[in-house]
Every structure is written in C-alpha cells, then in structure tokens.
Amino acid sequence: MQGYVLWWILAAVLVAVELTSGTFYLLVYGLAAAAAGVAAWLGAGLVAQLATAGVIAVAGTLALRRWKRSTGHPESNVQDLDIGQTVQVESWQGSRGQVKYRGALWDAEAESGEVDTGRPLVIRAVRGNTLVLGN
Question: What's the predicted TM-score (pTM) here?
Fold first, then answer.
C-alpha cells in the first residue's frame, strides 16, 4: 500500500474520532496527517512527510490553544443564560434572601442596597451559587 494512502486513512480515523470528542485537537492532527499524505503523494520522503505533519500539528495546536483562551469560559456562558430570568421570592430580609429558581432554593442578594420584593425580581448576575437580583 502506498504511503499517502496510510496517511489519509490515519487522517480519516482521527477526524472520525474527533466527531465524538468535540475538542478540535484531533481535527488538527487529522489535517496534519492529510497534509503529510499530500506530501507523500507529491513524492516527498518519509522525513519530509513527518516534518510536514509535525509542523502543522504543532502550529495547529498552538493556534487552537490561543483561540480557546480568547473565547469565554463555558461556565460563564452557562450562567449567562440565567441573567434576565425572573425568580420567586421565598424569604427576604434587607438586602439578602432566598428565592426559588429552576425548582430549587437559591441564596440571593440585592444588586444595589434594597429591592422592591413586591415587584418581580430579575437575575442581574451570578456569583458562585448566589444570585444577584434587581427590579
């Protein structure tokens, strides 16, 4: 079997496994293997094929790490879904209390000093497992 065919089979396997993981790293390595297969198809030697795969894998990994650092943290994105939702007051004293949200009791605090518990309270932020509320 030709060398380029082996590289392309490896690339296909890596991309297929990537579909189950969702990390994008295996996609980068699959692209590196495919590029090495192109190099082999063009007649490059084994050293050149390995160098091609290695350079693309390292460059892709570094680019992917930089991209992942620049995007928001998944935890904060999940919490952002809570912002703007209304809650039901269970007990409230001063600027702190407990509210019912998503079927559970949550600790809550007022966004600014006091809130009017007679009006609907809206989640303004999430700090740990405490909801910051305002009107």
Answer: 0.55
